[in-house]
């Protein structure tokens, strides 16, 4: 019995209208479900920490659990999605996310909430591992940049709505309601995904179960080891980190020579693809230094209430959303290196201006600097993401989509671990130091992105000669 959805194998031409918009709406709602709750939970961290009598460093595991589960599962799920169908994987993710949201709302301890968030992250990974791959089959090849830009707009809108929704919920209800509000959105996304998403060609390669286990072990032990190390537990952290490195070595050896590996490191052999991947990862490390630490900065240093904090962070995501849509119109025509370099450079400038603010800064001073950083990030993402997808060989959409999400979640996870480490070492100075590290990471990403311009000129000069 075939899976529901629109049947198509026309990757190069995409879906005809109006089926294209219906399918894109299904992807958009699914992605919104995944990113909205991530943003809402960030704003609620100080409240959850107080309610569960946890430290700021411990409460960050509400974020880390989601990101670690997503990061570890992304590539295995992208591989499985290529086998069972991208649309089916997306629908499974929506259902898991809905169940996990209810479990989050019903949690009474930090451990229960952390485990429920891990399940929620796994459901989110089901969605995010295939969303860009689905877009490649929804849009014709020459318009993929437009589809990716719309996807970026949805992500930015979700992150923009998150702080605002979180602030509204926390002003009238308790924190569990930030998870209950996912249920109606999940039901709407599931209904549309069941009828509108296209059926795509499926891989005939058997699922590599041993490779999946090794992938999960590699990510989980490496991240948990790093987390223990940054919290001062060098012995246990060192052991787990070594186990993770061994798992990585075994995994990469097992995957060598496979036509469709779970961890598609062969795609990173293309220098342009590799630069886009690492630029994305470093940029998201910078963004998480800002996103996770900013609620603590606003509440503890600038004495804003939880409800006001959400509104002051929202301009970041509004800037991301607006600029992602604007840049998407020209992302298919202008060099990715130029757009991405300028964009992430503006983001670093915004972080620096926020770092230089005095504790008695006005709301207007906070808002315009936050919006500036968000606009820069919105200009950076679409061209960088488009570069990764168009460089992927046909038939490798799942792997490229997975690596694109790994760059995002890997950067966010490393950023969250570093934020937790900074808070654990010196909580009083942590917000200021995190903004300084956000600026530094943004500058590193800017320089790395700018290297594409130098390489491009040299390559062009060589062709001319």
TrEMBL record:
<dbReference type="GO" id="GO:0022857">
    <property type="term" value="F:transmembrane transporter activity"/>
</dbReference>
<keyword id="KW-0813">Transport</keyword>
<keyword id="KW-1133">Transmembrane helix</keyword>
<dbReference type="InterPro" id="IPR011701">
    <property type="entry name" value="MFS"/>
</dbReference>
<feature type="domain" description="Major facilitator superfamily (MFS) profile">
    <location>
        <begin position="23"/>
        <end position="459"/>
    </location>
</feature>
<feature type="transmembrane region" description="Helical">
    <location>
        <begin position="148"/>
        <end position="171"/>
    </location>
</feature>
<dbReference type="InterPro" id="IPR020846">
    <property type="entry name" value="MFS_dom"/>
</dbReference>
<feature type="transmembrane region" description="Helical">
    <location>
        <begin position="177"/>
        <end position="197"/>
    </location>
</feature>
<protein>
    <submittedName>
        <fullName>Transporter protein</fullName>
    </submittedName>
</protein>
<keyword id="KW-0812">Transmembrane</keyword>
<dbReference type="InterPro" id="IPR036259">
    <property type="entry name" value="MFS_trans_sf"/>
</dbReference>
<feature type="transmembrane region" description="Helical">
    <location>
        <begin position="204"/>
        <end position="224"/>
    </location>
</feature>
<feature type="transmembrane region" description="Helical">
    <location>
        <begin position="435"/>
        <end position="455"/>
    </location>
</feature>
<feature type="transmembrane region" description="Helical">
    <location>
        <begin position="308"/>
        <end position="327"/>
    </location>
</feature>
<feature type="transmembrane region" description="Helical">
    <location>
        <begin position="403"/>
        <end position="423"/>
    </location>
</feature>
<feature type="transmembrane region" description="Helical">
    <location>
        <begin position="21"/>
        <end position="40"/>
    </location>
</feature>
<dbReference type="Pfam" id="PF07690">
    <property type="entry name" value="MFS_1"/>
</dbReference>
<feature type="transmembrane region" description="Helical">
    <location>
        <begin position="60"/>
        <end position="80"/>
    </location>
</feature>
<feature type="transmembrane region" description="Helical">
    <location>
        <begin position="334"/>
        <end position="354"/>
    </location>
</feature>
<keyword id="KW-0472">Membrane</keyword>
<feature type="transmembrane region" description="Helical">
    <location>
        <begin position="236"/>
        <end position="252"/>
    </location>
</feature>
<feature type="transmembrane region" description="Helical">
    <location>
        <begin position="273"/>
        <end position="296"/>
    </location>
</feature>
<dbReference type="GO" id="GO:0005886">
    <property type="term" value="C:plasma membrane"/>
</dbReference>
<feature type="transmembrane region" description="Helical">
    <location>
        <begin position="92"/>
        <end position="111"/>
    </location>
</feature>
<keyword id="KW-1003">Cell membrane</keyword>
<feature type="transmembrane region" description="Helical">
    <location>
        <begin position="117"/>
        <end position="139"/>
    </location>
</feature>
<feature type="transmembrane region" description="Helical">
    <location>
        <begin position="366"/>
        <end position="382"/>
    </location>
</feature>
């Amino acid at each position: 019995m075939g899976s529901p959805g629109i049947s198509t194998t026309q990757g190069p031409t995409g879906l005809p209208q109006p089926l294209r918009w219906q399918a894109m709406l299904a992807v958009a709602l699914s992605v919104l479900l995944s990113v909205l709750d991530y943003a809402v939970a960030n704003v609620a961290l100080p409240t959850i920490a107080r309610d569960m009598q946890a430290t700021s460093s411990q409460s960050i595991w509400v974020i880390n659990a989601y990101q670690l589960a997503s990061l570890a599962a992304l590539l295995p799920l992208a591989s499985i999605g290529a086998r069972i169908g991208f649309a089916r994987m997306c629908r499974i993710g929506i259902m898991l996310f809905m169940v996990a949201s209810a479990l989050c709302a019903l949690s009474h301890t930090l451990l229960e909430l952390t485990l429920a968030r891990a399940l929620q992250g796994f459901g989110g990974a089901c969605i995010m591992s295939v969303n860009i791959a689905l877009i490649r089959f929804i849009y014709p090849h020459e318009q993929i940049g437009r589809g990716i830009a719309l996807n970026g707009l949805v992500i930015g809108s979700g992150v923009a709505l998150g702080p605002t929704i979180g602030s509204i919920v926390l002003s009238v209800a308790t924190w569990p309601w930030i998870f209950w509000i996912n249920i109606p959105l999940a039901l709407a996304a599931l209904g549309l995904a069941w009828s509108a998403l296209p059926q795509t060609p499926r891989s005939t390669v058997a699922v590599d179960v041993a490779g999946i286990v090794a992938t999960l072990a590699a990510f989980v032990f490496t991240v948990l080891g790093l987390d223990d190390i940054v919290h001062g537990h060098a012995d246990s952290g060192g052991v787990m980190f070594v186990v993770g490195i061994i798992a990585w070595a075994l995994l990469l050896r097992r995957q060598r020579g496979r036509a469709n590996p779970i961890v598609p490191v062969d795609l990173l052999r293309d220098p342009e693809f590799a630069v886009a991947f690492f630029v994305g990862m470093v940029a998201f490390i910078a963004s998480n230094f800002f996103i996770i630490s900013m609620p603590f900065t606003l509440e503890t240093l600038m004495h804003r209430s939880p409800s006001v904090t959400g509104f002051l962070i929202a301009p970041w995501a509004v800037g991301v959303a607006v600029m992602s849509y604007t840049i998407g119109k020209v992302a298919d025509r202008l060099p990715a290196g130029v757009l991405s370099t300028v964009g992430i450079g503006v983001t670093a400038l915004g972080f620096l201006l926020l770092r230089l603010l005095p504790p008695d800064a006005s709301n207007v001073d906070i808002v315009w600097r936050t919006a500036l950083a968000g606009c820069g990030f919105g200009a950076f993402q679409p061209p960088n993401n488009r570069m990764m997808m168009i460089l992927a060989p046909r038939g490798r959409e799942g792997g490229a989509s997975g690596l694109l999400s790994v760059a995002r979640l890997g950067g966010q996870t490393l950023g969250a671990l570093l934020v937790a480490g900074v808070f654990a070492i010196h909580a009083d100075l942590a917000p200021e130091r995190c903004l300084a590290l956000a600026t530094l990471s943004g500058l590193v990403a800017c320089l790395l992105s700018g290297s594409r311009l130098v390489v491009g000129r040299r390559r062009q000069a060589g062709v001319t000669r």
